[in-house]
Amino acid sequence: MAQLLDSRNLVIRGDNDSDPANFLWQSFDFPDNTLLTGMRLGKNLATGQEWYLKSWKSTIDHSPGNFRFELDVSGCPKLVIWNGSARYVNRAWNPSVLLQPKYCDVYPHCGEFGSCNNDSLCICLDGFQPKNIEAWSSLNFSEGCARKIPLNCNNKDDFKRQSNMKLPYTGSSSYNMSMKLEECKIKCPENCSCTAYASTTITKGVSGCLLWFSGLIDIKKQDQSGDVFYVRVGSDSVA
Fold it and tell me: Cβ neighbours of residue 103 under 8 Å, at least 6 residues apart?
């Protein structure tokens, strides 16, 4: 039996099933170009089923277009807009914030260890310098930044606080919801591959430790509401 619910979800039930929550099939499992209340974004890790939005080619041609909007669950969950196979916009998951793409949101505008400001210009994080000075001066920021002083891979490395920032891309990160910031501060220096750490909030009132293990990308300077993370630098890089 087919039924259109008040939520606009088209469901199919068994004829003899009296439980209103049981569906043999539901349209909300196959989103199109509009996210309605009750729909899901993400991935069922047990079955592999994914829920994402896809654009139309045009208002006349409703076949799939180039853009896809999804919740990427690798590392720390994040909202992503894809333009074909290219990651176009990347933001940390926040169920109360809608995406409003700007130039700084284009992935990854400033390369590794570069931060984009509100003027869509890039600056290197403290302790870093442009990899290619000539390209950087020509406003080509794609090669990013490199450390001024190499890491020693020991407890003598420093961690520079970065305030009011959008957290870096978390695809190569890991998080532990049972660890607090002070434990995070101890854990990261123990691993030579750990490049940064932060305290992150996945759901309201629940925070944990987020660790990065590669070059930091997709960083943006924000207003007072931004996040804080700590990036690993050579000990002589910090004044």
Answer: 109, 116, 120
Phi (first) and psi of residue 199, to 5 degrees: -95, 125
pTM exceeds 0.85, yes or no:
no
Is 132 strand, coil or helix? coil
Q: What is the dihedral of CA 92, 36, 51, 217, to 10 degrees?
A: -20
Gap between the Cα atoms of 175 and 178, Å rounded:
9
Peptide bond before residue 20 is cis, with ω within 30 degrees of 0: no
Residue with tokens 């300077």: 221
- Give the C-alpha separation, 221 to 229, whole Å: 12
Closest C-alpha to 131, from 119, 118, 148: 148
Confidence at 119, pLDDT banded by 50, 70, 90: low
Contact, 239 vs 160, CB < 8 A? no
DSSP SS3 for 192: coil
Query: What 3-state DSSP class applies to 123?
Result: strand
For 122, the token pair is 């890039």
Question: Alpha-carbon distance 165 to 152, whole Å?
Answer: 26
Q: How far apart are CA 115 and CA 125, in angstroms?
A: 7
| pLDDT score recorded for residue 167 | 86
